[in-house]
Design goal:
Layout lengths: L7 H4 L10 H21 L6 H8 L3 H7 L3 H21 L8 H29 L6 H25 L9 H27 L6 H16 L5
Helix pairs in contact: 2-3, 2-6, 5-6, 5-7, 6-8, 6-9, 7-8
Length: 221
């Protein structure tokens, strides 16, 4: 999918600059929803307008009422992903080294996997450097960094206080643990959302929250 430069305002309106009405918003949302399986099936660069309108059940003419091209649609989807990534990052606080901490972490991990189910195609395009548009690539960096910063803060608190109160080496260790955790969660979410492993969500979250809580939210020795 060739990269194109489109302003943020354009993705929240029709190509002629008008804000869509309620029915129009529903059609626009249907196109965005159809883009997810289309991108999953064909990949970021190969997905075409034909693929999206077929899954959305609308005409090409309808597509172009809301988006100038596939780049415009992907940008709108990426901006939604970035907004939801910010909300996800803000929702994780301290994770105590006890049962309440694991429970809070389990709830957040459930939200993370749900977030990946909705935006995995965007996240993979960012993570695998498929996005060539600089503004879109920067949006991905900002989105990942928001979540990573939250994880660093939560791990630092579990490790005995803010990074300002620790040695530089200890702070660096917290940063590496957070980055490793984010990478683990991204790949794990890809695996569990792209194939049937024979695990129901409850058992999966029980095991994942136990592993992450013990492995990343206990003070380092």
């Amino acid at each position: 999918m060739a990269a194109g430069r489109t302003t943020r305002a354009k993705t929240t309106a029709t190509p002629d600059g008008r804000a869509p009405r309620r029915q129009g918003r529903a059609t626009r949302d249907r196109l965005l929803a159809a883009a997810v399986p289309a991108l999953s099936e064909s990949g970021y660069h190969a997905t075409r307008v034909d693929d999206v309108v077929r899954l959305a059940g609308v005409s090409h003419g309808t597509f172009y009422l809301y988006f100038a091209n596939m780049e415009d649609l992907f940008r709108a989807l990426a901006e939604r992903c970035a907004d939801d990534a910010a909300a996800l990052a803000a929702s994780l606080g301290e994770v105590p080294d006890d049962a309440t901490g694991q429970a809070a972490l389990r709830a957040w991990l459930a939200d993370f996997i749900d977030f990946y189910r909705r935006y995995g195609v965007v996240i993979r395009a960012w993570a695998e450097n498929q996005v060539t548009d600089r503004e879109l690539a920067k949006l991905g960096v900002v989105s990942f960094d928001r979540i990573a910063t939250t994880l660093r803060s939560s791990i630092a608190a579990a490790d005995g206080g803010s990074s300002a109160a620790r040695t530089k080496a200890r702070a660096r260790q917290v940063e590496l643990r957070a980055d490793a955790l984010l990478a683990l969660l991204e790949r794990f979410s890809y695996v569990v959302t792209s194939r049937d492993l024979g695990w129901d969500d409850e058992r999966l979250l029980d095991g994942l929250s136990l592993l992450v809580h013990r492995g990343f939210f206990r003070a380092a020795g």
